[in-house]
Amino acid sequence: MRSKIISFIIGGMIGFCLWSIQVNASPIGYEAIQKQEIADPEEYMEENRIDITLEVEETCEKYGKEYNICPEILQAIAWKESRCKPRVSNGDCKGLMQVNAKIHQGRMKKLGVKDIYDVDGNIHTAADLLSELYKDKKNISKAIDAYSGNTGSSKYAKQVLLIAKCLDMTGGE
Length: 173
Hints:
9 helices, Lysozyme, 3-stranded antiparallel β-sheet, mainly alpha, 3% strand
């Protein structure tokens, strides 16, 4: 009986420690965003006319939490890919995150996404993909580059992280 109680207590302590590590861990990409240098983020956002809609911001927050990805990175990708316009199409790439609907048809089905132009479904699919790429690459810049179809280091990831830094510093305003 005593050994069962001790095992229960130790198991609970281990579980709590793992939970607190997970809860206190920074979202994927947070450190990379913090390393970006920018003198005046508000000026940068104004010059580049970066404006994230409330719907996109809230949806990125939702899937950022679900996939432990910094939501500003998802917002920055939406801005880079489509200027946050959900009905944009470029060949097989669709929606505000420019998800390739043919390649990711199975992913969409698994996630229950029926309309790739739907903001929630598009961001959900993109967050799932970015999370998978991060697990494979173990580096957010490389994952962002892979997301955009680049195989090496590119300006794309640097631009996404810079926009994400501005969004983080200004609260998306």
